[in-house]
Amino acid sequence: MIDQSIFNNKKAAYYTLGCKLNFAETSTIGKVLAEQGVRKVRAGEKADICVVNTCSVTELADKKCRQAIRRISKQHPGAFIVVTGCYAQLKPEEVAHIEGVDLVLGAEQKLEILQYLDNIAKKEEGTIVASQSKDIRTFSPSCSADDRTRHFLKVQDGCDYYCSYCTIPFARGRSRNGTIASMIEQAKEVASKGGKEIVLTGVNIGDFGKSTGETFISLIQALDEVEGITRYRISSIEPNLITDEVIDFVASSKRFAPHFHIPLQSGSDAVLKLMRRRYDTALFRHKIEKIKKLMPHAFIGVDVIVGTRGETDEYFEEARTFIESLDISQLHVFSYSERPGTQALKIEYVVDPKTKHTRSQKLLDMSESKLQAFYESHIGNDANVLFEHTRKEGMMHGFTENYIKVEIPYNPFLINKTTKVRLGDWNKNKTALTCQFPEEIDKQNK
Fold first, then answer.
1. What are the pLDDT digits (tens) for 368-379?
2. Which of the residues 137, 274, 414, 430 has an alpha carbon 20 to 30 A from that of 4?
C-alpha cells in the first residue's frame, strides 16, 4: 500500500519523445499523478518528479533520449527521474546506468506508474521494472489533449508485423486494443469538455479488433456518430489495412477528415520484400488513386525510409520514380538506422552514410515541391479552419480539414472554433496560407 502523503505538495515535469501515442500516454501518466495531488511544474520551478517517455525508432532517437535524460537531470537537481517508453523497454540496463535515473519502467508497467512510486528518494542506480516483450499484454487506455485543440485517442497498441528493420513489436508487444464501446465513451468525454478534434492513434491502428473481435471500419463508423466532435483524423495506417471500405466511408462521413498518413517505406517492390512489408507498389498506387478519385482535395502524407540494407542505386531510382508519379501531398523521409536484433542485419548490401544523405535530400526536395503544389492548388477555395491556442509573433494558426495550415492575426475569440474562410496566398515565411473571412469578402464585393 503506497503512502499517498509522499505526494503532498510535489511537482512533476513531463517530457515526451517520439510519436503521438507517446504523447497520449504521457498525458495519462500526468492525470494519474495529478489525482494524487502532484501538480505540473510551472516555468522556472524545480520538479520533484520527472517522467521521461522515450522513443527508440532509430539509433538517433536513442541518442536524443540519452541527451534529454541528462539535460533533465541537470535542470531538476534532486528530482526522482522515471524513464519509460520504447527505449526503456528495449534497453533497460543501458537506461538504468544513465546518471540521475532512479526508475526504469517497461511498456507493461508504464501506465501503472503509481504502484512503483512507493519511495521517491534518489537512488544510487536506477531500478528496473520491465516484462519481456512476449508478456506485454495489457491495453491501457489513453486520451490526451495537446497544447492546441486536438486530442489524441489511443485505440490500439502493439504490432504483429515484424518488418525486417523494425524493433517496435519488441518494444510494444503484440497487437491489442480497447473496445469500441470504451472508445465511444472517451470520445463523448472529449466532447463534453469542449474538445473539437480527435486524432486516432496507435502502433498499427488498422489492425484494431485483434483482442476484441471488432473491426477498424466498425470503430470509425461508431465514432462518426458522436455528437460534439467536429472532426476526426486517422493517424498512420498501413496500406494493406486501409481497405476500400474505409476509404469509401471517410469520403462520405460526417466527421472524418480527408487526411491520410500512409507508410510506403520504399517505392521498389524488391526492397519492400526485403523489408517484409505486406503489400507491393501496385496496391499502394491503387489506394492513392482511389482516395484522390473520391476526395480530390485530400491531403496524403507518406512515410519513406532511404538507405535500407539492400537498397541499391537501381532500387532507389526505381523508388524515386514511383514516388514522383504519386498524387500525394508530403513525404516524411527517414534514413535507415541499424537496430540490434532485427532481420535486416542479415542483408549484405550496406548503403554508406553519404549516399543515405544524398538520397534523403532528393526526396525532401520532392516533398517540398509536392507540398507547395498542394497548398497552391487550394488558394482561393473556401475551407473550414479550426484555430488553435498557440500563437507566435502576434499570429495564430489553424488547420483546414485537409490539413492546410492557415495563419491569421491573433484573435482569442476564434480559438477552438471552426470558422469558414477563403484561403489566400502564402504568408511571408511561406509556412502557411493567409485567409479572409466571409464578412471581409462581402465588404470588398459591395
1. 999 999 999 999
2. 137
Range among 123-132, 144-153, 345-354 with highest mean pLDDT value: 345-354
| Sign for the pseudo-dihedral over CA of 180, 183, 184, 185 | positive
Q: pTM of the full predicted structure?
A: 0.92
Strands 127-129 and 101-105: parallel
Residue tagged 531538476 (cell numbers) = 76
Residues in the chain: 446
Q: How far is CA 313 from CA 261, 310, 432, in A?
A: 27, 10, 35
**Closest alpha carbon to 210 in 170, 177, 161:** 177
Report whether pLDDT(59) > 60: yes
Dist CA 338 CA 409 (whole Å): 45
Mean pLDDT of 7-19: 93
Cβ burial, residue 369 (10 Å; 0-12/13-18/19+): exposed
Classify 371 as helix, strand or coil: helix
CB neighbour list of residue 165: distance below 8 Å, 6 or more residues apart: 275, 305, 308, 309, 336, 339, 342, 344
Q: Is pLDDT above 90 for 442?
A: no
Nearest to 174 by CA among 216, 126, 123, 210: 210
How far apart are the C-alpha atoms of 163 and 161, rounded to whole Å?
Answer: 6
- For 349, residues 6+ apart whose C-beta sits below 8 A from its C-beta are 309, 310, 311, 312
Q: How many CA atoms lie within 13 A of 111 on its CB side?
A: 20
What is the per-residue pLDDT for 66? 97
pLDDT band at residue 148 under the 50/70/90 scheme: low
Looking at the DSSP bridge assignments, the partners of residue 201 are 154
CA distance 405 to 383: 11
Residue 435: beta bridge partners? Answer: 423
Average pLDDT, the chain: 94
331 vs 324: CA distance, rounded Å: 11
